């Protein structure tokens, strides 16, 4: 091992073990953006007549508010909103972030053009090494929009009908390992299950059948690319996680290429997502290359993996905390599907409206994507303020989902709030777990099918309780806010 590699390893270990706080310290050693910051400050002083959004002062020059934000981002943003209003800027690690808080100002992001508020500039350094070139944020946005359309074609009702069957089957199979009763790691179980179900539904039976421990490890290594380290540290650093990620990327693609070739050579067509991609063409008639398909398959799996697994885990804890609600959900299974609880059907899923509202409410209080981000490329006017180019413009679903003026009993888990006509004071962007506008999620319907099928099955199999009444705290160290100590008490129903 060279000295260079060794120092990479040491740095990485520091980065992995510690929270954002210490990561930020590690990063500041590199002072990657000091020059940039200097330029920015120079620009701010010479702004002329434009009025910039209020900037939260900080006595720490480079790190700025990274420590407070890293410790408790939602509280930080809520306090900023109280003190400074719906548009507020602050500095972290030499970068200026401007948050648009609340529905009215969030509209700026969702109605903007990608040339003005740009997604690639902030996301590509994370996603391109994981998905590969030629897809998502590696290509001009009009091309990605075409790719999203192809994916959407593959997420249709005919396919969902089959998904319900296989998700129910996979869930039964997976949870055979849980005994009659005991304390279990719910988040770990659902993460493992959702790789299996997502792989089978979105990649197809061939790729699912190859998903053994080795392949699961490759996914984990790829996934190790989505870290604060990858976002903040320069990509040329010899970090072990970067190298594991790059190796896994190559290995996974090799597996996918073989399956894609078989599909292309087959006499008869299948009817699933992979077939949709094999048959898809861009507007100019060009079909997708094997590399593009492989990249899209990786993207599909990872886009749905953490989002759906944290959401389903949180939903489990909300149901475990409120036993009466859990009972109502179980009774709904019987009313809608039949007293003897036969296998689920897609058509019944729609009618499970209480379960639907529980999922909706889970996504309100624990939206897995806590911040959407864009780079301002042109000056942006919002109210009386001008956001200058170079700011990272952000909207936080979590904050919008719990604003005092918008939501009544804002922190209560109350699925029945959606029975009222106007649960969010009629505000357009008060509820945005899947985003809005040109970057909106295409996976919403699939996520609902997957999570509702899993929870229908689990409610039929088990009763759930919290461990000594303890509801998990939010773990803010990862990019997706997961439950800490995600242990649940289960008892088999029969
Ligand atoms: C509970 C589950 C999910 C949640 C909460 C969620 C949330 C989001 C959000 C907030 C965005 C907007 C990001 C932004 O504007 O910066 C987004 C975009 C997207 N999501 Fe999801 N997602 C979920 C599941 C999925 C699944 C299952 C798939 C694929 C099958 C998927 C594919 C995508 C894609 C392709 C985009 C477009 C990104 C863009 O155009 O820039 N998502 N999602
Ligand atoms: C929070 O998440 C990180 C990353 O997954 C994990 O290493 C850590 O143990 C978690 N912390 C707690 C208290 O659960």
From TrEMBL:
Keyword annotations from UniProtKB, A to Z: Cholesterol biosynthesis, Cholesterol metabolism, Endoplasmic reticulum, Heme, Iron, Lipid biosynthesis, Lipid metabolism, Membrane, Metal-binding, Methyltransferase, Monooxygenase, Oxidoreductase, Steroid biosynthesis, Steroid metabolism, Sterol biosynthesis, Sterol metabolism, Transferase, Transmembrane, Transmembrane helix
Domain of life the protein comes from: Eukaryota
Gene Ontology biological process terms from the UniProt entry: cholesterol biosynthetic process; methylation
InterPro entries registered for this protein in UniProt: CYP450_sterol_14alpha_dmase, Cyt_P450, Cyt_P450_CS, Cyt_P450_E_grp-IV, Cyt_P450_sf
Record Pfam families: p450
Main location group: endoplasmic reticulum
Enzyme class label: oxidoreductase
Alphabetized SUPFAM superfamilies for the sequence: Cytochrome P450
Catalytic activity: 24,25-dihydrolanosterol + reduced [NADPH--hemoprotein reductase] + O2 = 32-hydroxy-24,25-dihydrolanosterol + oxidized [NADPH--hemoprotein reductase] + H2O + H(+); 32-oxo-24,25-dihydrolanosterol + reduced [NADPH--hemoprotein reductase] + O2 = 4,4-dimethyl-8,14-cholestadien-3beta-ol + formate + oxidized [NADPH--hemoprotein reductase] + H2O + 2 H(+); 24,25-dihydrolanosterol + 3 reduced [NADPH--hemoprotein reductase] + 3 O2 = 4,4-dimethyl-8,14-cholestadien-3beta-ol + formate + 3 oxidized [NADPH--hemoprotein reductase] + 4 H2O + 4 H(+); lanosterol + reduced [NADPH--hemoprotein reductase] + O2 = 32-hydroxylanosterol + oxidized [NADPH--hemoprotein reductase] + H2O + H(+)
GO molecular function, one term: iron ion binding
Protein family per UniProt: Belongs to the cytochrome P450 family.
Stated name of the protein: Lanosterol 14-alpha demethylase
Organism in which the protein naturally occurs: Triplophysa tibetana
């Amino acid at each position: 091992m060279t000295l260079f590699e060794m120092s990479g390893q040491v740095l990485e270990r520091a980065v992995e073990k510690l929270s954002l706080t210490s990561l930020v310290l590690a990063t500041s050693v590199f002072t990657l953006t000091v020059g940039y910051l200097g330029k920015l400050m120079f620009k701010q002083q010479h702004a002329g007549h434009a009025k910039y959004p209020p900037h939260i002062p900080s006595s720490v020059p480079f790190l700025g508010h990274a420590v407070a934000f890293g410790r408790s981002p939602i509280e930080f943003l809520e306090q900023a909103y109280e003190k400074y209003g719906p548009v507020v800027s602050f500095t972290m690690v030499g970068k200026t972030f401007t948050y648009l808080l609340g529905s009215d100002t969030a509209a700026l992001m969702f109605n903007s053009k990608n040339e003005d508020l740009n997604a690639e500039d902030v996301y590509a350094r994370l996603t391109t090494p994981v998905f590969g070139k030629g897809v998502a944020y590696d290509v001009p946005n009009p091309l990605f929009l075409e790719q999203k359309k192809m994916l959407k074609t593959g997420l249709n009702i005919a396919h969902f009908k089959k998904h319900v069957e296989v998700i129910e089957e996979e869930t039964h199979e997976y949870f055979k390992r849980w005994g009659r009763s005991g304390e279990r790691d719910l988040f770990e179980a659902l993460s493992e299950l959702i790789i299996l179900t997502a792989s089978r539904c979105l990649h197809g039976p061939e790729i699912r059948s190859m998903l053994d421990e080795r392949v699961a490890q490759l996914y984990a290594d790829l996934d190790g690319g989505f870290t604060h380290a990858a976002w903040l540290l320069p990509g040329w650093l010899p970090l072990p996680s970067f190298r594991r990620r790059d190796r896994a990327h190559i290995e996974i693609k090799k597996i996918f290429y073989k399956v894609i070739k078989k599909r292309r050579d087959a006499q008869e067509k299948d009817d699933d997502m992979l077939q949709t991609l094999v048959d898809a063409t861009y507007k100019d008639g060009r079909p997708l290359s094997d590399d593009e398909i492989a990249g899209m398959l990786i993207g599909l799996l990872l886009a749905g993996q953490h989002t759906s697994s944290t959401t389903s885990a949180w939903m489990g804890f909300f149901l475990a905390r409120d036993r009466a609600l859990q009972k109502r959900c179980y009774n709904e299974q019987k009313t809608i599907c039949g007293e003897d609880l036969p296998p689920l059907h897609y058509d019944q899923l729609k009618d499970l409206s209480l379960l639907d509202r529980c999922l909706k409410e889970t996504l309100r209080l624990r939206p897995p994507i806590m911040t959407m981000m864009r780079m301002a490329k042109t000056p942006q006017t919002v109210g009386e303020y001008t956001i200058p180019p170079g700011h990272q413009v952000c909207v936080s679903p979590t904050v919008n989902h719990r604003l005092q003026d918008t939501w009544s009993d804002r922190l209560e888990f109350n699925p029945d709030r959606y029975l009222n006509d106007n649960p969010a004071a009629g505000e357009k962007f008060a509820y945005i777990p899947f985003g809005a506008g040109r970057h909106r999620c295409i996976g919403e319907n699939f996520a609902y099918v997957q999570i509702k099928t899993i929870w229908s099955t689990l409610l039929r199999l088990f009763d759930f309780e919290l461990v000594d009444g303890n509801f998990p705290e939010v773990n803010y160290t990862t990019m997706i806010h997961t439950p800490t100590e995600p242990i649940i008490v289960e008892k088999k129903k029969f």
